[in-house]
Amino acid sequence: MLSLYKDATVTKELFNTAKEALLAAKKDVKHPFRYFTMATIGINNSPRLRTVVLRDVKEDLTISLFTDRRSKKVTHLKENNNVCLLFFNHNDMLQLKVDGKAFLEEDDKVLKKAWKKMKESGKKDYRSAQDPGSKVKDPEMIEYLDTSHHFAIIHIIPSKIEYLELKKEQHVRALFSKEDGVWEGSFIVP
Ligand SMILES: Cc1cc2nc3c(=O)[nH]c(=O)nc-3n(C[C@H](O)[C@H](O)[C@H](O)COP(=O)(O)O)c2cc1C
Fold it and tell me: Is the pTM of this model over 0.85?
């Protein structure tokens, strides 16, 4: 039987589908990839997950998100910067799993530029006087800083992307790895 998925050209097409979907989600706030799950390795090697917003995707597929510098995820990354990201598009039944290394943006100019661009309402997320995750009697009693903030940007440089598309006739699963700066892909059993 003639296979629809027999050569490298097809895996390249799948890679481009994944890439275009990520690039589309950076512009379209309603895109299903706009919100994704990020896993870090917590204390005692326990897995830790949370939903985050996709803020930027570069041509080389570096993925960026905003966070509070005091959050647990940042503490985790300082110990071990291996992360796994999970994207799911329920319209296309497409899942992307991204393995990579996370880095905190250290360039003050870049941080200031992103902060300046942000809506005032969004800035509140990085201005709580108390640390994120600390106990509070009443959410309305949380104090917010007027003159300082704890805004941070996390960049994730991907090294592996796993593509899984569920289809009635035949599910399609492929693994892409970056070797010496070049992405290479192969099909794997779904
Ligand atoms: C829809 C949604 C979007 C979120 N986006 C972000 C985000 O972009 N950055 C962030 O740090 N936390 C975001 N959060 C909160 C995280 O899921 C998490 O609760 C918080 O960052 C604390 O995580 P940590 O203690 O593991 O660091 C979002 C939560 C939801 C429900």
Answer: yes
